[in-house]
Design goal:
Blueprint (H helix, E strand, L loop, with lengths): L39 H6 L2 H9 L9 H11 L14 H4 L31 E3 L2 E3 L18 H7 L3 E4 L21 E5 L16 E4 L2 H12 L2 H19 L3
Parallel strand pairs: 3-4, 4-5
Antiparallel strand pairs: 1-2
Helix pairs in contact: 3-7
The structure holds carba-nicotinamide-adenine-dinucleotide.
Carba-nicotinamide-adenine-dinucleotide binds next to loops.
Protein name: Sirtuin 3
GO cellular component, one term: nucleus
GO molecular function: histone deacetylase activity, NAD-dependent; NAD+ binding
Length: about 250
């Protein structure tokens, strides 16, 4: 399970980190309150702030970091059942360019998102002063979750390890997925602060926490597993492929 914290090392601000998080830096958009920028009702009323922000996230502006490649390595080793991400930056998609058809990513792939960004589909045409607005295929606050989210019902009981990285576990129903693995299954949190069940008295005996920067945490785990060289090689090869893809070769 992942959140905005896995992309801050790529330079993309998260929501809630004090000072650097988006919620502390939205003054320019003149919003009634910070969350409005991701609310469907507000988007219908005024989509401009969302589009201004999402232009920032346009593919090519940011690159995947070691945490994304770690997920790729898990997949390569046949150890990844599925990645559940809350992120809209598309960096997970960017690392799967070579394996689009095979990666069990909890999203849908289409030729148009091959550059890694969210798909822009004609979900709903909203009539705003006579102008049709195309809504990106991401889930806003206040929208129904897509059907593929509910794969968790069969995925989570099958898991024998749950890794949670870079999320405040504040947003439901995503946050509650952490409780959907079997009680005997170890849960590893790699995050700057204690969140969700890890911060509560109902944490489980097999819970493990690597507090601090997510890249350092993942590097530590990878070192203990003896995978450092393999991850380095994967990153070098993939980064080369990504840059030549973005350059249009
Ligand atoms: P959040 O609520 O902002 O929480 C981020 C968590 O990650 C916090 O606990 C931080 O302490 C932690 N964190 C941040 N940077 C690091 C770091 N370098 N090392 C370790 N821990 C770190 O974000 P969530 O994802 O939990 O909230 C869900 C929202 C955020 C979803 O609706 C997303 O769409 C939305 N979001 C996505 C992006 C993106 O796509 N990159 C950016 C900002 C917000």
């Amino acid at each position: 399970m992942a959140g905005a914290g896995i992309s801050t090392p790529s330079g993309i601000p998260d929501f809630r980190s004090p000072g650097s998080g988006l919620y502390d830096n939205l003054q320019q958009y003149n919003l009634p309150y910070a969350e409005a920028i991701f609310e469907i009702a507000f988007f219908h009323h005024n989509p401009k702030p969302f589009f201004a922000l999402s232009k920032e996230l346009y593919p090519g502006n940011y690159q995947p970091n070691l945490t994304h490649y770690f997920v790729r390595l898990l997949h390569k080793k046949g150890l990844l059942l599925r990645m559940y991400t809350q992120n809209i930056d598309g960096l997970e998609r960017l690392i799967i360019l070579q394996h689009v058809a095979a990666f069990p990513f909890s999203g849908r792939d289409s030729p148009r998102d091959a550059r890694g960004g969210p798909r822009y589909v004609c979900h709903s045409h909203i009539n705003l002063n006579g102008v049709g607005i195309v809504k990106p295929d991401i889930i806003f606050f206040g929208e129904e979750l897509p059907l593929h989210f509910f794969k968790y019902v069969t995925d989570f009981p099958l898991a024998d390890l749950l890794i949670i990285m870079g999320t405040s576990l504040e947003v439901e129903p995503f946050a509650s997925l952490a409780g959907a693995v079997r009680a005997s299954v170890p849960r590893l949190l790699i995050n700057r602060d204690l969140v969700g069940p890890f911060a509560m008295t109902n944490s489980r005996p097999r819970d493990v926490v690597l507090l601090g920067d997510v890249v350092n945490g993942v590097q530590t785990l990878v070192r203990v597993l003896g995978w450092t060289q393999e991850l380095d090689a994967l990153m070098a090869a993939a980064a080369e492929k990504v840059s030549s893809h973005l350059a249009g070769n």
